[in-house]
Amino acid sequence: MSRKIDPNSETAPDQDDVLQFAPVAEAVAILLKPHAEVVIHDLKTQTIAYIANNISRRDVGGSSLADLKDIGSLGADVVRPYRKTNFDGRQLKSITAVLRNGTGEPYGLLCINFDIAPIEAARDALNLLAAFQGAGAQPSALFHADWQETVNAAIADFLGERGLAASALAKEDHATLVERLEQEGYFSIRNLVPYLARLLGISRATVYKHLREARQKKLLTAED
């Protein structure tokens, strides 16, 4: 995903182009690989502009879930470490930097998401404390509309109850998970079906099939 600038071009690079930070994202991701991803958000389009070492299975061009008008409420250009839940239930330690242009206007975000599972495994095995001091709740200015985070947490609870990873779920588990999400009202969220299909590694048609069965089961239960 690297990009080159023509040295003979008479046009100066756009100083508000967040992709100028792509080499920084790649450098951090390479240093911490395979445990960290770096995501660059474009606040002008409110979309994800770049992902280095993608561990969250998000797509470039997808919603950044960050609203430009809320940046002023953050109170700092570096948002202190906070917890996130990845789609497969892994806990991430994240930090966000606000990118500003020469006039001080915010135009992008650079987020580092670090997988702390190896640290927590070492803690459990050696009775050590994971280095997670200073982590707090998610900053609402960044994640107030992050339905994916809510869905990830619900899936993490489901996986935790069964002691399974997302990749280990069987067909019956997929159906049970869809039924639970339907019971809790998650399928009222737009675009949940393609998101869930991508996370589980199954087709949208399969998700819709499980959803129809879950709704039929709920209807029969209500009639009884």
UniProtKB/TrEMBL annotation:
Name the UniProt key words of this record, in alphabetical order: DNA-binding
Q: Name one GO molecular function term.
A: DNA binding
Q: Say if the entry is tagged with keyword Ubl conjugation.
A: no
Q: Which residues form the YheO-like domain?
A: 20-123
Q: Does the keyword DNA-binding apply?
A: yes
Q: Which residues form the Transcriptional regulator DauR-like HTH domain?
A: 151-212
Entry protein name: Predicted transcriptional regulator YheO, contains PAS and DNA-binding HTH domains
Q: Which organism is it from?
A: Rhizobium miluonense
